TrEMBL record:
Residues 13-30 have a biased composition (Polar residues). It comes from Stylonychia lemnae (Ciliate). It comes from the Eukaryota. One of its GO terms (molecular function) is protein serine/threonine kinase activity. The gene is Contig3942.g4214. The lineage of its organism: Eukaryota, Sar, Alveolata, Ciliophora, Intramacronucleata. Residues 274-346 form the AGC-kinase C-terminal domain. This is Protein kinase domain containing protein.
Length: 351
């Protein structure tokens, strides 16, 4: 996604006096037109600013579209959630947390939020359009861009404000994909950031072997195995891989690799990652080992045809809520425009 230049502040556009004289009439007219344009640009962004191109995904609460910003033809992914369904499943707080997390996190390997806005019935997240395809694992939440770089998406179940050294800040919610759940989530004893390092271990195990460490179709038994069963280290795992997995898949969260004060630094220093220069990786100075076959930023060949064949239309939400109930369903502080959103002069306040 490219950057665009922001307009100059209004004060910068006012002609200066010439030798103490007032601006000429032509300059005043120009100044007035520019002022009116800037004032008109304070309009709130909405779905009308985007052209829907194709459906690229579908979830429980709505669809994901490939869209173009009409102002400059920039391509984005627009996730649309139905407010009534979010509310009916008590996910209002989690959805707002996802919105806030996406605004705060700026990382080259995490999807960027460019805009967020709402209507009476729906919520809209406008993010990077990534067309390299998803990994062939659970990571439909890990997507490749056109150059082969990974981007993490979907923070709908994320928590904020957890202090890894403070038991009082643990959370007790039971959520997530079963194959990747840490034991302490399953037992309900409370969990913090250390549970994420277990999930990372389960993901790496799957990438090395083809499936998560305790995977089986019987989910109840699978979760019992996660809590009780010894993890099998495959004979073809390297010594470094076995050491890393043993550290990440440690059942005691207080002893788990990455659970201490050093957090991720402890994992980065592990011999398994010895050949990786993490600063160069962050700066995207390391060429990805795989580059997806795409012709350009609008190529959708790596997106499932079951979505692409759907009618590309944001249909009106069918709601049984009363007008008063809809007003209560309003999300405060939801509207957002990123610094590099791409619309010159399009400005609005959080609402």
């Amino acid at each position: 996604m490219g950057n665009t230049c922001a307009r100059k502040p209004l004060t910068d556009s006012i002609p200066q006096k010439r030798n103490g004289s007032q601006p000429e009439n032509s300059e005043l007219r120009s100044m007035t037109v520019e002022s009116e344009n800037l004032l008109n640009s304070n309009a709130k962004i909405s779905k009308d600013d985007f052209k829907i191109i194709k459906v690229i995904g579908r979830g429980t609460f709505g669809k994901v579209f490939m869209v173009k910003l009409k102002e400059n033809n920039m391509v984005y992914a627009m996730k649309v959630l139905k407010k009534e369904q979010v509310a009916s499943r008590n996910l209002r707080v989690k959805t707002k947390a996802e919105r806030d997390i996406l605004e705060k996190i700026k990382n080259p390997y995490i999807v960027d939020l460019h805009y967020a806005f709402q209507t009476e019935d729906k919520l809209y997240f406008v993010m990077d359009f990534l067309n390299g395809g998803e990994l062939d694992l659970k990571p439909e939440n890990i997507i490749l861009d056109s150059d082969g770089n990974l981007k993490i998406t979907d923070f709908g179940l994320s928590k904020q404000g957890l202090d890894k050294q403070n038991d009082k800040s643990k959370t007790y919610s039971f959520c997530g994909t079963p194959e990747y759940l840490a034991p302490e989530i399953i037992t309900g004893e409370g969990h913090d950031k250390a549970s994420d390092w277990w999930s990372l271990g389960a993901l790496i195990y799957e990438m090395l072997s083809g499936r998560p460490p305790h995977y089986q179709k019987n989910r109840k038994q699978m979760m019992a195995d996660i809590v009780e069963k010894r993890i099998e280290m495959k004979p073809y795992f390297s010594v470094e891989a076995k050491s890393l997995l043993s550290g990440l898949l440690e059942r005691d969260p207080s002893k788990r690799l990455g659970s201490g004060e050093e957090d991720a630094l402890q994992i980065k220093r592990h011999p398994f990652f010895a050949k990786i220069d993490f600063q160069k990786l962050y700066d995207k100075q390391i060429a990805p080992p795989f580059k997806p076959t795409v012709s350009g930023p609008e190529d959708t060949r790596n997106i499932d045809k079951m979505f692409l064949d759907e009618t590309a239309k944001d249909t009106p939400a069918v709601s049984n809520l009363s007008p008063d109930a809809k007003k209560k369903n309003h999300f405060d502080e939801f509207t957002y425009q990123g610094n590099n959103g791409g619309v010159e002069g399009l400005k609005f306040k959080k609402k």
